[in-house]
Inverse folding.
């Protein structure tokens, strides 16, 4: 018996035809599950009895369990951090952030992470395993179930490096963005990466359907290699070359994420280097003042810059024509802010 949530549309079509049913059965089943949220095969009334019986023999549908929710009010919005337990007992975190009409879900793609970034709590917990596509989608199904309202936007900025688990992430994206199933528009889904160029090279960066964010975090390779060991293999200059090959675009710019850390990457010289490396016609810049839990051992050597420094950095970039946003992370006091996702308990 398998959890049917892990099958792509193609896989389910193959299953249907291999068992003598029409290929279209796959789409019908998936509509019931992802659109109507009906998990009991026996009530899927437009599907033949034989197929329903066969499904009952081979599959089940099971959502993970919410084992903890932390809620934080924030102006006229709120954020909620979910601790989600999968079938095998592994835990990951998802954060939903509500603001006006927008409801964004930040999902995890792995349990832990193997990228080793020194400013990120998830790296500090090490790597356990990749999440399956079903486990990625389940985060949305579970949170929507808990909240009874719809997620409008998604960001792959929870635990893990999505491009290090690209096969499962792509499978999940297909179902999440298909308007017959979950139906979140592709332009409302952001995939964030530390810059795995070997995977990025397989995308057509001009035609990439989802939003792409690259965690840059430094404007010179020495600093970046210190902060992000991945830079030794896939250096900043290579990222810049790739991004600069992109055609200028008004609506589909790549977001460069830049965690600001006191005295490490927050100097005006850093901003000047960024201006040299990138073009405002191709990227926008999202500054994220370092989030840190006062008790964090992993981040003990790092501090957030003061507001004056943050503002100076931002203004320098804005004056050079870049669209710059400063993300004072939501969910800070519940440790649900960027880079703070570290399951308190790996196994329950
Ligand atoms: N591995 C992917 C997805 C994780 S996204 C990536 O690196 O992009 C997490 C985002 O939060 C990244 O932009 C990262 O740079 C940022 N981040 C990590 N640790 C942080 C911290 N302590 N404070 C603020 N932002 C942080």
């Amino acid at each position: 018996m398998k959890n049917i949530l892990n099958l792509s549309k193609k896989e389910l079509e193959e299953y249907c035809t291999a068992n003598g049913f029409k290929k279209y059965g796959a789409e019908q089943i998936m509509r019931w599950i992802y659109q109507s949220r009906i998990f009991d095969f026996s009530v899927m009334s437009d599907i033949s009895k034989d197929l329903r019986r066969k499904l009952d023999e081979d599959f089940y549908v099971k959502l993970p369990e919410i084992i903890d929710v932390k809620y934080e009010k924030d102006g006229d919005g709120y954020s909620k951090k979910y601790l989600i337990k999968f079938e095998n007992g592994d835990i990951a975190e998802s954060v939903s952030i509500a603001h006006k009409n927008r409801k964004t879900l930040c999902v995890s793609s792995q349990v832990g992470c193997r990228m080793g970034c020194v400013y990120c709590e998830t790296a500090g917990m090490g790597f356990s395993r990749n999440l399956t596509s079903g486990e990625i989608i389940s985060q949305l199904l579970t949170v929507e179930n808990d909240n009874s309202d719809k997620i409008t936007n998604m960001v792959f900025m929870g635990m893990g490096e999505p491009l290090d688990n690209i096969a499962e992430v792509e499978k999940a994206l297909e179902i999440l963005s298909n308007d017959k199933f979950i139906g979140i528009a592709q332009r409302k889904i952001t995939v964030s990466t530390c810059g795995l160029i070997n995977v990025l090279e397989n995308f057509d960066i001009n035609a990439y359907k989802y939003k792409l964010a690259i965690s840059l975090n430094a404007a010179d390779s020495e600093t970046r290699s210190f902060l992000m060991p991945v830079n030794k293999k896939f250096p900043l200059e290579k990222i810049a070359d790739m991004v600069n090959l992109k055609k200028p675009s008004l609506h589909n710019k790549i977001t460069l994420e830049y965690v600001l850390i006191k005295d490490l990457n927050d100097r005006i010289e850093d901003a000047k280097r960024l201006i040299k490396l990138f073009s405002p016609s191709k990227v926008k810049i999202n500054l994220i003042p370092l989030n840190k839990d006062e008790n964090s051992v992993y981040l003990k050597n790092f501090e957030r810059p003061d507001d004056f420094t943050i503002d100076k950095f931002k203004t320098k970039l804005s004056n050079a024509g870049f669209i710059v946003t400063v993300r004072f992370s939501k969910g800070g006091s519940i440790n649900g802010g960027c880079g703070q996702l570290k399951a308190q308990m790996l196994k329950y």
